[in-house]
C-alpha cells in the first residue's frame, strides 16, 4: 500500500509539474500576488508532505513565526515549496530532519528549506535549475525525479520578483533558499 501511495503521489507531482511547465512556456500563468502569511502556506505544504516524510521516518518542522508576511502569488509559491520539500524528503536519509525558516533581508524575506540529507556536490550547482539531458539523481530510497521541479521553482520564484539559490555540503545537507518581496 505504501508503494502504491508513493507512486500515485509521484505521478501526481510529475503531471502537475508538466502542466505548470507547459503554462510557463505559453506565458499562460496568471499571477495573483497579494500580501499573504507565509506561516500558513508553509504549514499547509508540510501537512500535505507529512505522509511521504513519515514513511521514511523524517521529521519536518516549520520554524516560521505566525504572521510572517510577504507579497506573492499563492499558487506558484505553494508549488515551489511543495517541490523543494519533496526534494528534501527524497534526499534525506530515513530518520533525518527537514526544517523551514524565514528571515527578513531588507525589502525581502528569505525562505530556507533545509535538510540534513546527503548534500549536493558544488560542481552540480550550476545545472540544478536548468533542464538538460542529464540523468536525475535517485533519492535515498531509490525515488526518481524528472528534472523539471527545480527549473519550475526557479521560473516561479522569478515570476514573483525573487531569486533562488542552493547552499550545500556533501554528507551534511542542503539548504534551498529563495526570496520574495515584502510588498
What is the topology?
Blueprint: H1 2-25, E1 34-37, H2 38-55, E2 59-62, E3 69-72, H3 74-90, E4 97-105, E5 108-115, H4 149-159, E6 164-169, E7 173-181
Parallel strand pairs: 2-4
Antiparallel strand pairs: 1-3, 4-5, 5-7, 6-7
Helix pairs in contact: 2-3, 3-4
3D architecture notes:
The protein has one domain: Histidine kinase-like ATPase, C-terminal domain (Heat Shock Protein 90, 2-Layer Sandwich). 38% of the residues lie in helices and 24% in strands. It has helices at residues 2-25, 38-55, 74-90, 149-159; strands at 34-37, 59-62, 69-72, 97-105, 108-115, 164-169, 173-181. It has a 5-stranded mixed β-sheet with strand order 2-4-5-7-6. A two-stranded antiparallel sheet has the order 1-3. Strand 6 (164-169) and strand 7 form a beta hairpin.
Strand content: 15-25%
Oligomer: single chain
**What is the CATH architecture annotation?**
2-Layer Sandwich
Large-scale geometry? globular
Structural class: alpha+beta
CATH level 3 topology: Heat Shock Protein 90
* Series of secondary-structure elements, N-terminal to C-terminal: HEHEEHEEHEE
CATH superfamily: Histidine kinase-like ATPase, C-terminal domain
Report how far apart the termini are. 45 Å
Output the strand order for the largest sheet: 2-4-5-7-6
Low-confidence stretches: none
What is the residue-averaged pLDDT?
84
> Helix fraction?
25-40%
How many H/I helices? 4
- Overall CATH class: Alpha Beta
Which keywords apply here?
five-stranded mixed β-sheet; Heat Shock Protein 90; 183 residues; alpha+beta; two-stranded antiparallel sheet
Amino acid at each position: 500500500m505504501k508503494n502504491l501511495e508513493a507512486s500515485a503521489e509521484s505521478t501526481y507531482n510529475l503531471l502537475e509539474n508538466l502542466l505548470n511547465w507547459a503554462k510557463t512556456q505559453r506565458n499562460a500563468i496568471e499571477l495573483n500576488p497579494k500580501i499573504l502569511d507565509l506561516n500558513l502556506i508553509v504549514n499547509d505544504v508540510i501537512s500535505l508532505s507529512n505522509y511521504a516524510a513519515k514513511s521514511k521516518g523524517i521529521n519536518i518542522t516549520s520554524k516560521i513565526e505566525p504572521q510572517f508576511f510577504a507579497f506573492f502569488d499563492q499558487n506558484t509559491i505553494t508549488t515551489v515549496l511543495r517541490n523543494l520539500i519533496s526534494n528534501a524528503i527524497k534526499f534525506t536519509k530515513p530518520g533525518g530532519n527537514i526544517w523551514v525558516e524565514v528571515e527578513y533581508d531588507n525589502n525581502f524575506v528569505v525562505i530556507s528549506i533545509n535538510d540534513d540529507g546527503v548534500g549536493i556536490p558544488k560542481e552540480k550547482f550550476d545545472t540544478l535549475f536548468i533542464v538538460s539531458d542529464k540523468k536525475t539523481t535517485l533519492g535515498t530510497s531509490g525515488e526518481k525525479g524528472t528534472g523539471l521541479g527545480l527549473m519550475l521553482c526557479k521560473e516561479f520564484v522569478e515570476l514573483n520578483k525573487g531569486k533562488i539559490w542552493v547552499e550545500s555540503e556533501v554528507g551534511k545537507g542542503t539548504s534551498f533558499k529563495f526570496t520574495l518581496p515584502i510588498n
